[in-house]
Amino acid sequence: MGWMTNVMGLLVTFGALAGILSWISGPSRGLLWTAREGRLPRVLGKTNRNGVQINILLIQGALVTLLSSLYIVMKT
């Protein structure tokens, strides 16, 4: 039964990683589509050579970092 615990731990880890990746890529893909339609600034509609919306991901990362850092300064 000990080996099954390791297998389940690995599967849970892969599932959590897949969930995190979908939370990151989903909104950024939607914003890319909106930017390409002209409803957002054109700079957000640009992608790199691999088709990744780098400007949107950088802004998204900065916002998440800023909001997450609020936990450091807030009192419990």
Would you give an account of this structure?
The chain is an all-alpha fold and 76 residues long. It has one domain (2-73). Helix content is 72%, strand content 0%. 7% of the residues are buried. The model has no long low-confidence stretch (mean pLDDT 91).
In short:
By secondary structure, the protein is mostly helical.
Number of strands: 0
Mind summarizing the main beta sheet?
none
Report the principal-axis shape.
flat
**Which whole number gives the mean pLDDT?**
91
- Tally the helices: what do you get? 2
What is the rounded distance between the termini? 41 Å
Low-confidence stretches: none
Name the quaternary structure.
Answer: single chain
Helix content: over 70%
Structural class by helix and strand composition? mainly alpha
Radius of gyration: 18 Å
Query: How many structural units, i.e. domains?
Result: 1
Order of secondary-structure elements: HH
Beta-strand fraction estimate: under 5%
Organism: human gut metagenome
Transmembrane segments: 54-74
Subcellular location: Membrane
GO molecular function: transmembrane transporter activity
